[in-house]
């Protein structure tokens, strides 16, 4: 049985601002592990919903005890599919992300719902759910605990990244960090491996949002 976690976050910005920031949130000082992002497809439905699929390449350093179960070339990187639906009428944005690499070792599926805060229409509420599982016999519990801890840490960084991008959008330009500069070379390195993952993403099964 896998792990399930649910949490909420609040951004003191309008839903429109948060949606714009969502597409501009990389790079930022809190997402140096995100090396590349590519749009696989995008379309507008008859009801004016924007549907997108992106492929994200991330660094994903596994703990030493886990590295023995991974191919050598996959111990430092991970490929993530991100599906999203933006509904301007309901003023909601729903995202679903899941990993297509290391999936047998550990699968992490995350669903986020962005909507106006019911108590303040100028703020945006984020409901975040995640399901973490592993099918590795004998180590599944330890791997799930590791995945849960990493997920909780990433939520904090994600919110800080949003706040950084929103501040930059509003003219409060933060200074460029050394980490941002150093990460550029890593992004260039990841471009070579990205094409193979694109093919996997284009054939991946679509997920359901509701």
Essential attributes:
7 strands; Alpha-D-Glucose-1,6-Bisphosphate, Chain A, domain 4; alpha+beta; 4 helices; 210 residues; 7-stranded antiparallel beta sheet; 33% helix
Q: Please give the CATH class of the largest domain.
A: Alpha Beta
- Give Rg in angstroms: 17 Å
Number of helices: 4
Mean pLDDT: 84
Give the total of beta strands: 7
The poorly predicted ranges are 175-183
**Share of residues in helices:** 25-40%
What's the main sheet like?
A: 7 strands, antiparallel
Q: How many domains comprise the coordinates?
A: 2
Measured between the Cα atoms of the first and last residue, the distance is 22 Å
- Stated plainly, the CATH topology of the largest domain is called Alpha-D-Glucose-1,6-Bisphosphate, Chain A, domain 4
Strand content: 35-45%
| Order of the strands making up the biggest sheet | 1-7-6-5-4-3-2
Helix/strand order, N-terminal first: EHEEHEEEEHH
What general outline do the C-alpha atoms trace?
globular
Textual characterization of the structure:
- It is built from 4 helices and 7 strands; from the N terminus they run E-H-E-E-H-E-E-E-E-H-H.
- It is of the alpha+beta class.
- The protein has a 7-stranded antiparallel β-sheet.
Provide a short characterization of the protein structure.
This protein has 210 residues and is of the alpha+beta class.
Secondary structure layout plus pairing:
Layout: E1 3-11, H1 15-23, E2 34-44, E3 50-59, H2 64-67, E4 77-87, E5 92-99, E6 107-117, E7 120-133, H3 140-169, H4 178-203
Antiparallel strand pairs: 1-7, 2-3, 3-4, 4-5, 5-6, 6-7
Helix pairs in contact: 1-3
């Amino acid at each position: 049985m896998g792990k399930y976690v649910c949490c909420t976050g609040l951004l003191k910005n309008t839903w429109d601002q948060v949606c714009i920031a969502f597409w501009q949130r990389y790079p930022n000082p809190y997402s140096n592990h995100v090396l590349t992002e590519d749009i696989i497809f995008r379309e507008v439905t008859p009801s004016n919903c924007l549907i997108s699929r992106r492929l994200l390449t991330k660094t994903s350093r596994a703990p030493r005890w886990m590295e023995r179960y991974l191919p050598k070339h996959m111990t430092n990187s991970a490929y993530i599919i991100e599906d999203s639906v933006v509904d301007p009428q309901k003023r909601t944005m729903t995202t679903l992300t899941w990993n297509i690499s290391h999936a047998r070792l550990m699968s992490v599926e995350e669903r986020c719902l962005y909507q106006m805060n019911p108590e303040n229409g100028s703020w945006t509420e984020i409901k975040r759910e995640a399901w973490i599982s592993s099918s590795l016999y004998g180590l599944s519990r330890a791997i799930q605990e590791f995945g849960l801890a990493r997920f909780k840490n990433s939520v904090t960084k994600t919110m800080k990244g949003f706040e950084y991008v929103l501040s930059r959008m509003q003219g409060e330009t933060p200074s460029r960090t050394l980490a941002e500069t150093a990460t550029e070379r890593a992004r260039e390195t990841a471009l070579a491996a990205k094409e193979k993952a694109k093919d996997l993403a284009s054939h991946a099964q679509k997920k359901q949002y509701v």
